[in-house]
Specification:
The protein is α/β, with parallel strands linked by helices. It has helices at about 40, 45-55, 80-90, 120-130, 140-145, 160-165, 180-185, 200-215, 225-230, 245-255, 280-285, 295, 315, 320-325, 370-375, 380-385, 395-400, 410-425, 440-445, 450-465, 470-485, 495-500; strands at about 1-10, 15-25, 30-35, 60-70, 100-105, 105-110, 115, 135-140, 150-155, 215-220, 270, 285, 290, 300-305, 325-330, 335-340, 345-350, 390. Helices cover about 35% and strands about 15% of the residues. It has a 5-stranded parallel β-sheet with strand order 11-14-17-10-18. A 4-stranded mixed β-sheet has the order 1-2-4-3. Strand 8, helix 5 and strand 9 form a beta-alpha-beta unit.
Length: about 500
């Protein structure tokens, strides 16, 4: 007897429908075809043991299973359940009349239990798109998949639950996700808050500007000055995720297997902080069958690179193109996958190998020229993509012992949201641009017009401070964001003056 069950394969962060055809006839052999990997081929042993342990019969006949389309690689153990249900249906133990209504995915334990799988949300989205009535998956994945409200999602604990449901028995019911509880009520909750930070008002101001315009930032200062502490608090002042951003972020974390069990949506902006020993593929994504890297896991959030000069130069250079395009394309001989990569880069570094160059109290013991050599580990093209260069100095004892609380992240976030709304209206005819940091040169000329006084100030600053030519666009870009924070339609000289302050590493005198 021939029956068909339906599953899904992951392709990047999207899903592709897979038809699993099971035919049982005369003989005793087992054939599994359709480009399965080793984990899929091993499903026979898991299925046979699981069926035996729950009191179901594994047919001692010739079983031929085809996974179509046959030219797409099938990976992982998530096909255990649809294959097992297909075998049971073909042997007459499960009613096959309802199989065409459902996409079925799940990994089997030897005792018949179901283990969670990767990619439940993409599976649900594709199932709805292809007109299926519902999705049957492990119980731990039900909350995530049930975000797709128009689809019936059934979370099963074991294979007997699924068999009973398909045979019209049992009490398996569709799972419902409460978005207000799982998403809306949690998206503003962060572990770290700017009210915990003593002093460092100028750094907090710089990070507020960065959050308002989506700008990349480099923090440079001695050890213990608070660079990492400040960076960890940046997500708390970014605008909350909207539902579209949350869905896209959740899909990335789901296919990477990083979404917590019984979690419906990623409710807070991601903060990723990879170690400096990370590889090229670990940062941008890759592998034989491409998986998202850290820049994609930081999509719609923050990527924090601590001790920036310690990263391998090749690792930093492969990040340049995704920073501009906000998407990374991973190409292999037979496959090409796009992963979203719209993130804010926050990097931190010591000013020199000993860490005390420009320190107000500690002397720098580095030899002449060592400071510049240390800074040269970061290429000019990469530095060109970082809008704000912020010098961090140690906090004085008096400020550390103050009992007065600093401004809370919630208050700062309100100002950031107001500035972002101005930008949304500004770029409503440019759907690919969402914040000032994404403006092209053409848009800069249109939206960053300065008067004669501002032009004179900028000319004087570039000459006196030996600023490089590449700093020009960045200064205009940041000054536009500062003006938005001040609710100013025009860029004023004070906005330009503050933006010029954030280009310290462009000065030819730095580190010399």
């Amino acid at each position: 007897m021939l029956v068909k069950t339906f599953g899904s394969a992951l392709f990047g962060i999207e899903s592709i429908p897979i038809t699993i055809e099971v035919n049982i006839g005369k003989g005793i052999q087992f054939f599994l075809v359709g480009l399965p990997d080793s984990a899929v081929k091993e499903s026979q042993q898991r299925i046979e043991a699981a069926l035996s342990n729950v009191g179901l019969k594994y047919p001692k006949q010739k079983i031929v299973i085809n996974m179509a389309p046959a030219d797409i690689r099938k990976e992982g153990s998530a096909y255990d359940l649809p294959i097992a249900i297909g075998i049971l249906a073909a042997s007459g133990q499960v009613d096959h009349s309802r199989l065409e209504e459902f996409v079925i995915m799940g990994e089997l334990s030897l005792d018949g239990g179901l283990k969670p799988v990767k990619g439940a949300l993409p599976f649900a989205i594709k199932a709805l798109e292809k007109g299926f009535k519902g999705l049957i998956i492990p119980e731990e994945n039900a909350a995530e998949a049930a975000v797709v409200e128009q689809l019936e999602v059934y979370g099963a604990k074991n294979i007997t639950d699924v068999v009973g449901f398909l045979n019209g028995e049992g009490n398996l019911t569709a799972f419902k996700t409460d978005l207000s509880d799982s998403f809306l009520n949690k998206r503003d909750q962060y572990e770290y808050d700017f009210s915990d930070v003593k002093g460092q008002e100028n750094i907090k101001r710089a990070l507020e500007i960065a959050a308002a315009g989506g700008h990349n930032v480099i923090l440079i200062g001695p050890p213990g000055s608070g660079k990492t502490m400040l960076a960890k608090r940046l997500p708390s002042i970014l605008p909350p995720l909207n539902l579209e951003e949350a869905l896209e972020t959740t899909k990335i974390h789901s296919v990477s297997g990083l979404l917590g069990q019984r979690t419906a949506l990623v409710s807070r902006r991601p903060f990723r902080s990879p170690h400096h020993t990370i590889s090229d593929a670990g940062l941008v994504g890759g592998g034989t069958y491409p998986q998202p890297g850290e820049i994609s896991l930081a999509h719609n959030g923050v990527l924090f690179l601590d001790e920036l000069p310690e990263f391998k130069r090749s690792v930093l250079e492969v990040m340049r193109q995704p920073m501009e395009a906000r998407v990374v394309t991973i190409s292999r001989a037979r496959i090409s996958v796009d992963f979203p990569a719209s993130f804010m880069l926050i990097s931190a570094m010591n000013p020199c190998p000993c860490g005390y160059y420009n320190h107000p109290d500690q002397p720098c013991v580095c030899s002449p020229g060592i400071v510049q050599k240390y800074l040269n580990k970061i290429s000019g093209p990469l530095m060109d993509r970082i809008d704000l260069h912020v010098e961090v100095v140690p906090v004085a004892f008096k400020e550390l012992t103050e009992k007065r609380l600093s401004e809370r992240s919630e208050v700062i976030r309100e100002r950031v949201i107001r500035a972002r709304k101005i930008q949304e209206k500004r770029f409503e005819k440019n759907p690919s641009v969402h914040a000032n940091a994404q403006m092209s040169s053409k848009l800069l000329q249109h939206y960053c017009v300065i008067d004669d006084a501002g032009r004179a100030l900028l000319k004087n600053a570039m000459e006196r401070l030996s600023l490089s030519a590449r700093a020009y666009d960045r200064i205009l870009n940041v000054s536009r964001t500062i003006a938005d924070l001040e609710q100013s339609e025009h860029i004023l000289t004070e906005h330009l003056a503050e933006a010029i302050n954030y280009r310290s590493l462009d000065r030819e005198t730095w580190g010399s």
